[in-house]
Amino acid sequence: MKVPISDQILTIAGALFYSEGIRAVGIDRIIDEAKVAKATLYRHFPSKDHLVAAYLQHRHDRVIRSLHEVLERAARPRDQIKLIFEQLHEKADSPEFRGCAFALAVAEHGDSERVVSVARTHKKAVGDIFRIIVLKADITTGQTAAHLSFLYEGALATVAVGRDPQAVLVARDCALLAFDAAISSTIAFERADHGKDN
């Protein structure tokens, strides 16, 4: 089955943007590598700004789908957290890994409202995944979902700078400790509350 031209352009542009940087890659380079006419590219993406936003949207869809698959693969909330970080470790343990595509895009292209909007939507969606897990675990105390999100984001940033994928496993262990502490706090709170009623 033939790949649509827009997908072909996005695949080439996305790989170049992520590996070399948005500002470093010009439209002419994308046209050349995608083997399309300039008019064809601009028919699908009216500007580089539109192309960058589409690349991020495509990446967002893929990452969020992958995180939802983790939720389906593991039944227990603790296992879901463990798997999310281990999946990130797998990605980070690759020579091509440069960190979070959304953070990189905002750092380079933060003057674009279109790009910033997709990046913010993505970060909120990742936070929502952790909120789903915490709700499923019936945790009622603290900011557990926010703590887990920060550990995930921190792992991405640390690997991007330090180039050591082990940082993700350290973040995983911290996330599991935070989760266990939240479960213990919830149980203690419920017992104390129940004691007041008696």
UniProtKB/TrEMBL annotation:
Transmembrane feature ranges: none
PROSITE patterns registered for this protein in UniProt: HTH_TETR_2
Record-annotated HTH tetR-type domain positions: 3-63
DNA-binding region as annotated in the record: 26-45
Keyword Hydrolase attributed: no
PANTHER family attached to this UniProt entry: HTH-TYPE TRANSCRIPTIONAL REGULATOR RUTR, HTH-TYPE TRANSCRIPTIONAL REPRESSOR BDCR
Protein name: TetR/AcrR family transcriptional regulator
Organism expressing this protein natively: Rhizobium chutanense
Taxonomic lineage from the root: Bacteria, Pseudomonadati, Pseudomonadota, Alphaproteobacteria, Hyphomicrobiales
